[in-house]
Amino acid sequence: MSQVLLTGGTGYIGSHTAVELLKQGLDVVIADDLSNSSASVIDRVEMICGKRPAFYEIDITDKKELKRVFDENDISAVIHFAAKKAVGESVRLPLKYYRNNIDGILTVLEVMKEHGCRRFVFSSSATVYGDSPVPFTEGTPLGKLANPYGRTKYMCEEILRDEAAAEPECSFVILRYFNPIGADASALIGEDPRRGSANIMPNLVLTAAGIKEKLSVFGTDYPTPDGSAVRDYIHISDLAEGHLAALRYAEENRGCEVFNLGTGRGSSVLELIESFERVNDLKLNVEYAPRREGDVPEMYAATDKAERVLGWKAKRGIDDMCRSSWLWGREVFK
Ligand SMILES: NC(=O)c1ccc[n+]([C@@H]2O[C@H](COP(=O)([O-])OP(=O)(O)OC[C@H]3O[C@@H](n4cnc5c(N)ncnc54)[C@H](O)[C@@H]3O)[C@@H](O)[C@H]2O)c1
Predict the structure, then answer these.
(1) What tens digit of pLDDT does each residue of 50-92 get?
(2) From the CB of 104, is ligand 1 less than 6 Å away?
(3) 78, 81, 85, 283: which has the fewest C-beta neighbours closer than 10 Å?
């Protein structure tokens, strides 16, 4: 494998994947417009790995700029992370989401094709399962999608299935992520809680740092053991390792294949809070709020396909996720 292009590679998942790939000796090129990340991530990735990825500050929907990246490098595979991902914003500004996420994947696929690049790994989401029954297997019929963000992921998957049928020499791997949390053990990179997110971990960190007065738990009357929502939290470093396995798979196989990247274990929001408080020896101010529209009671992955076919399995538990999240959070706010 020559070079791997990570679109959106300075973002949360992309930066951890860059670290994993560099540690494994792969040559990494990052293209990101920094709309939801910072260029300092490149320095930090270099501090962790002792190797610096090539970096292009470009909008990947700009075809001319993206072609330049391919012209100046020898890219044999792309991991396409770049996308807008805030569910609430996607409801308010659907066109922004369709434009960025759909235009983004089309531009990347077209430029890849023009340059004879045949391996593509895509960041999809467990959100495409909608309200289907758990555990979600890759064969579970996709459920009702709750928002434009989720629909962009579904549409991108359909584009890839069509393109795979038309291009039998190419390889497309769709990764459906569950709930990535945690941070690299170095505490040099992580999900930036200052960027504002509806996800639980950035809000746990903001509350622990005293920036947010109270942590809201949305829904306490779900049909789950403790009434709070159940999610399949996966350590970001496990998720990053999953990308390496997916790249290896794309090297050796053709067609379009879907894999869940989760742990296969559901943890409730209250369990996550308990773990965070215990491992970090602190107490959070928690308030109980009504359910949020569009949230499903529980989601967790069936992981046997990823284990069997990719030879990948998540290793880290929620205590590890909570510890590393706060180590990183303390760095951010120190
Ligand atoms: N974090 C999650 O919980 C989660 C779950 C499921 C799927 N995903 C998907 O995984 C991918 C990565 O997510 P993340 O959490 O790292 O998000 P992130 O926002 O931290 O990273 C995305 C990166 O893409 C960049 N970007 C966005 N549009 C771009 C464009 N047009 N041109 C160039 N760069 C652009 C942003 O600046 C950012 O650095 C996304 O596709 C997201 O939808 C994330």
Answers:
(1) 999 999 999 999 999 999 999 999 999 999 999 999 999 999 9
(2) yes
(3) 283
